[in-house]
């Protein structure tokens, strides 16, 4: 049985010694290289712990492939979506790098800052709409074969997002920031997921016969969409939610006097 990323595909993660700041593709490459190396050392172990370790590594590997697919696109091709998309993808890279490194985030404050920077743009109609339009543009017409499942998941997630647009666009950032990372994550996953679907579709069209890389990209697109885009549309927080969060913090704060 194939272990996933093999030498004949030519798409191994970069050298694990590669350096890069959080939020960079180089940092994700390095983290995934270390994780996949450790997981493949257990390829002959059929125990539940080893299997779960390989599954986790495979999930991070498809995150990397989606990030690569996005970065392979010329920045100029994104048009009006480029600024918001760059901020959303930067957040994804930092989050996925932390997951691949075995922790949620080594600097939680940085993740919040990255999400806030992207959210400030997504509350503006021109940036929200440009990002969703770019997703639709990348997704293109429905493909044939097994890639169709990935296309449908991205397409359906995009349609669901439109149902909560009114909650985000024009909203007060200081309120919707309570759930803003969910929107930033969803928009980033839509863009990168659509890029991966487009890359897989392009590989299938140009290859005279499907090869190992083409099949791997199809599998990666299906897995990425399944992992990240099946949930409900991201809903914005309300002032009441924000107030109740503060009450919880005050009630549980060490040495505090309880909720205001």
TrEMBL record:
It comes from the Bacteria. This is Uncharacterized protein. It comes from Streptantibioticus rubrisoli.
